[in-house]
Amino acid sequence: MEPITGGCACGAVRYEVTAPFESANYCHCHRCQRRTGTAWSINARIAPEHFRITAGEEAVRTWAPENGFPKSFCSLCGSALFSGGGELPVGVRMGTLDGDPGVRPSYRQWLDSAPEWETVPDDGLTRYPQARG
Predict the structure, then answer these.
(1) What are the angstrom distances between the C-alpha of 113 and each of 23, 75, 110, 130?
(2) Which of 19, 56, 77, 115 has the most CB atoms around it within 10 Å of its CB?
(3) Which segments of the chain are extended strands (E)?
(4) Tell me: the pLDDT tens digits for 98-119?
């Protein structure tokens, strides 16, 4: 398989994924809303050994919230890039991918936190009021 590539808005940070993504989902939690400035985030999951930063590692900053996965972003342009890493699974922000990741979101989680001002689409995906578990 050819690596799946991606990066931040300014181009300083680049990464590659060297195996197929395990899954993808929409997250409607308040933390994702605040972190992205949107009603939800779209994430694709991969084992940490299949994810690597190929350029701009010095520009990556990480926020480690209490009771949550670390969130990494570009310190130059602010692009949210991924969560987890190290021993944890990596949640790649699908909007940072260069092309088709070969996976589609299969569920929505934290719907209890979805904002009232944005209707969650009736797309047939499995829904979880909180974390998928």
Answers:
(1) 22, 28, 6, 8
(2) 56
(3) 4-7, 14-17, 23-27, 41-46, 51-55, 60-63, 71-74, 80-85, 88-93, 107-109, 126-127
(4) 999 999 999 999 999 999 999 9
d(CA 133, CA 77): 33
72 Cβ neighbours under 8 A, 6+ residues apart:
60, 61, 62, 63, 81, 82, 83, 85
Query: Which is nearest to 95 in space by CA: 24, 20, 34?
Result: 24
pTM of the model: 0.90
List the structure tokens of 13: 């940070």
Report the distance separating Cα 28 and Cα 44, nearest Å.
15
Inter-CA distances, 98 with 9, 94, 118, 120, Å: 11, 9, 27, 26
How far lies 100's CA from each of 4, 44, 91, 103, 133, in Å? 8, 12, 16, 8, 27
Residue 21: Cβ within 10 Å count: 21
Contact 7, 96 (CB under 8 A): yes
